[in-house]
What we know:
- This protein is an alpha/beta fold.
- It has helices at residues 18-29, 42-51, 55-64, 67-72, 87-97, 129-136, 164-169, 205-210, 214-226, 234-256, 278-304, and strands spanning 6-10, 36-40, 82-84, 108-115, 121-124, 141-143, 146-148, 151-155, 174-178, 227-228, 231-232, 261-263.
- Strands 1, 2, 4, 5, 7, 8, 9 and 12 form an eight-stranded mixed sheet that branches. Strands 3-6 form a two-stranded parallel sheet. The chain has a two-stranded antiparallel sheet with strand order 10-11.
- Strand 4 (108-115) and strand 5 form a beta hairpin.
- The longest helix is centred in the C-terminal third of the chain and has 27 residues, at 278-304.
- It is globular and about 65 Å long.
Amino acid sequence: MIDGKLGIxxxxxxxxxxxxxxxxxxxxxxxxxxxxxVGTSIGAVVGGCYVAAKIAELEAFATxxxxxxxxxxxxxxxxxxxxxxxxxxxxxxxxxxxxxxIEDLERRFAAVATELGTGHEVWLNRGRLVDAMRASYAxxxxxxxxxVAGRWLIDGAVVNPIPVSxxxxxxxxxxxxxxxxxxxxxxxxxVPECGxxxxxxxxxxxxxxxxxxxxxxxxxxxxxxxxxxxxxxISTVMMDAFSIxxxxxxxxxxxxxxxxxxxxxxxxxxxxxxxxxxxELIALGEAAADRxxxxxxxxxxHLAA
Length: 305
């Protein structure tokens, strides 16, 4: 492999991002460790841990999660600009990578974020690694925006869901892209007639629960966030809407600047908030990488010839 010329663009996709861990594990085992890493959203988290040599620690954390632990990490913030402040999640990151500065890393790294107000695509390739990661995954409405160098930043998937262009700008000659939403490609269509509007259940009993004890209030909050069996919750509505936007933007960006190789984990059936299913997602990432290993080796060998 030509040093510094193999790049990987890790796309956004919330919980599905655990598949990135499996992809990187297989590439490393095959002697194809990317030297240029760019991530958006969860891709920035996994990519940042990889360049910090903390991928094993991230895998251990991800596979330890249960539904209860995931909910315990969500520090709800009803008074701010996001439902979740993100402090507990940030503490988990800072425990391992707080002192690391991007410029000091052995591999080139950038996280993609979006500036509020202007919509600028911001490449975070300097300063504290943990700050770059936090800004890149600050999904609007869910997490609070992050202030970096005087700019309020939110999730990079708003403007560049699979940052192939950034990989090329940083010098990668062969770019691998990991798309966590390949199962949604081609599904967007038009439904000209969907029938009559159904009556909406306003759940009047919710008010009584709020006026009850603390445990009942927590139960209500959990139900509102994750939803019920017959209705989606806040997290599902916001994350699915964001996923649809991300899919449309990704199609346009990839058409204009396609990668040399695409890895498409088969993630149909995995919800964007199912962080507790890390073992399954990592395994699917490994399988997806295995399907493309021979092609990746051919591209790298051709470049070295």
